[in-house]
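Chapter review: from sequence to fold.
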Amino acid sequence: MKVKTKKGLRITALVLASIVLLYAVIAFFPRFDNYKLANPMLKESEFPILIAHGGGNKEFPDNTLEAFYNAYSVDERVMMETDVSITKDGVIILSHDTTLDRKTNVTGNIADWNYSDLIEQKVDFGYNNPTDDDDKLNGERVHFKDDNGVEKYPTDVTYPEGVAPRDETVFLATTLEELLIAFPDNRVNVEIKQSGDLGIKALNEVIKLLDEHDAFDRVVLASFHEEIYDEFTRLQKSGEVPEDFMYSPSYDAATEFYVLQLLGLDVFFDDGMCVFQIPMEKHGFDLATKHFVKTANRHNLAVHYWTINDIDDMKHLIEIGADGIMTDYPHRLKEVYDEYKTNK
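The token string follows.
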């Protein structure tokens, strides 16, 4: 009996030793670059990239050209974060919602409106209409106000020299093409909001725009819809897009990497994306750690955090080496950076 026990212990020890050895080999095994080229989504200095969420939608109306000009006045290197949907006549416009109900003075699905009608009728994207618990409008129309209760208009923006407001009172619909043309040197994050076949149609039109404006090397695509993400990966693997095509993963891929890096098995993560765009915390798991960022960087992957409006959170992300901070308040984040520079 004692002989069998000793033999069993030796086998167990051998198995454990083999596991330890395997982990040691994996730990020192070189991590390959998931994104094969120089990654423009990695930070370029000690500070994370300043990313204006919807253009900085607590300072000016969400996803309007005017909001992005405001963010540009804060930092000429600002990265633009925007959401897009396709209209009935096939134009890609900026909008967080797939309907016009919450952010404009009209209602209806974006897919049921022609872009030409939005412009002809001067539909105003300068609203922030309240909704009930079911995300339904309560009938009230509220023009956008900042945190101080001040209504904002296009004329309140600090524009670059030579640029004038499109309209003095109305925040007109903005196309993705307008954004790319207005800011030819800025990085842009484009999230596809529509799903299913409509979302795929929107994605195809976005791809055409990136090709026409030679913008693949500065625009990263994103979507929370798995079918859109699957299309990102299919386009990349099939070679239907250039080598510098960039996208960020859906929840499933981000979860996979998080688990693998916890186990020290991230060497097996082979997704060809270029950046994680994640919250600081999800389902009780702390995603804002030096280890997570450092591990991602070893794969030539950037880590951007959203949506960060608290000053202490901004400082924490600077300390852990985050590559980008997405915020509704570009001026606030810039002030935090300036404070760091002053105190050095």
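Two observations follow directly from the output. The first helix runs from residue 2 to 28. The chain has two domains: 1-30, 34-90+175-343.
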